[in-house]
Amino acid sequence: FPGVMEPAFSSLSGYFVAILLLQITVLTSEQFTVSSSRSHHVVMVGSQAELSCQLSPPQNAQLMQVGWFRDRHSQMIYLYEDGEEHSGEGIQNYMNRTVFLKDALEGGKITLQIYNVTVFDGGQYHCFFKDGHTYEEGIVDLREVRTAFQEVAIILLMVLFLFFLQILRTSAASCLHPRV
Fold first, then answer.
1. Which residues form the Ig-like domain (predicted)?
2. Phi, psi of 146 (to 5 degrees)
């Protein structure tokens, strides 16, 4: 009976080898993770912010769909696919203030530059890489910081506003209750 068992065992071992090779191929093909340059990015109001994301392991992302969006996918800032760049026309406050740097796509890196950062720019930014059915994203949290001068200017504006309200209140009261 040794001859009868041998073919069954060799076909069974061949089956296991084929399954193992298939799993190794699936595990090594096109899988990646995304890391951001810094998870928290702090910049001064009025300055420039540079937000970056990188594929790990580094690989060419020129044929992938990549981009940046704000909070939700519906607030797309930039999308790069099929070699073309599309800016998110729906977000007006980024018009003429952002640049999508794609020159490092061969190494799997994308960067979003935001010029003249405002207090409204603070929050989460998502970068993403999509290759076939594989999708990964990274999150960068942008925090804006005002200078001491900006803080003083805001306080002065508030004081002037309160002073103006007091003048209006006083003049309204004198109109309603004229002195006799």
1. 30-146
2. -90, 150
